[in-house]
Amino acid sequence: MTDRSRKSDLSLANDVAGRYGKLSQVEAVALGGSQALGAADLCSDIDLYVYVRGEIPLGVRADIATAGAEYAEVDNRFWEPGDEWIDAETGIHVDVMFRTVEWIEEQLDRVLRRHEASVGYSTCLWHNVLTSQALYDPNGWFQTLQQAANQTYPEGLRRAIIAKNHPILGRNVSSYVAQLERAVARRDLVSINHRAAALLASYFDILFAVNRMPHPGEKRLIEILLSQGAKVPTGMCEQVSALTRNVARGDQAIVESAEALIEGLDDLLRGEGFDPAQIG
């Protein structure tokens, strides 16, 4: 991205944040994603997180979303509640997500205090808060939230993520490998693709936990791990490539690729003091 387009993105982000900042329900607005990390490219959108203490009327949200937009969608609820639009002047995609103050505080408490893991992406919200940039924070609430989140990776959380995600890779009756075997037997390419994606989600959740790194989400995972000098299985890049390449074949090769991927991960876990046969 050129400096000029980067400035255009930040100017638009600040302008939109300012519009929300005028609303009494809004506690803070933060810029997240690649823009906040300085990793944006020409395909990147603007991810804004609006933290509220009360519901913003849909009509008010629609006024903000449609002002200067060539196309807008209001009250999308596919993932987090949000509004999206394409800015008419710049062509930039603006993606706004609404979170209550109580909800995000609970999500951080869930992982940082109670050490509760998920099946894949366990610490993505933690990473999001840590790496977001406050654009509107008049009372310092978001700054305080970030300060609380800026802590050493809890060992209990690390172990909980590994315990939650490792058995389902290949050991349990309903493991991803077992499901891939059944999908191959049925020649069900949709199921094969679905289970391979789920396997990778748990695989990378474990890798980021092993390295005591909050999970950055679904993009550029290999690049991020390697750039941070993380501990990774020997041959990881080739193994992931083989797995994704063999999905389209729909035969036993996908199962063999999954088993090789897990074997490499198990070697890494042994080096970290874990016994793969006893995890979970």
For the record, the CATH architecture of the largest domain stands as: 2-Layer Sandwich
Can you summarize the main beta sheet? 6 strands, mixed
Specify the structural class: alpha+beta
Give the helix proportion (percent range).
40-55%
CATH class of the largest domain, please?
Alpha Beta
Q: Low-confidence stretches at least 5 residues in length (pLDDT < 50)?
A: none
Q: How many H/I helical runs?
A: 13
Q: Give helix and strand order, one letter per element, not per position.
A: HEHEHEEEHHEHHHHHHHH
The value of Rg in angstroms is 21 Å
**CATH topology (level 3) name of the largest domain:** Beta Polymerase, domain 2
Q: Looking at the structure, what is the overall shape? A: globular
Structure summary, number of beta strands = 6
Instruction: Quote the distance from N terminus to C terminus.
Output: 44 Å
User: What is the count of distinct domains?
Assistant: 2
What proportion of the residues form beta strands (DSSP E)?
5-15%
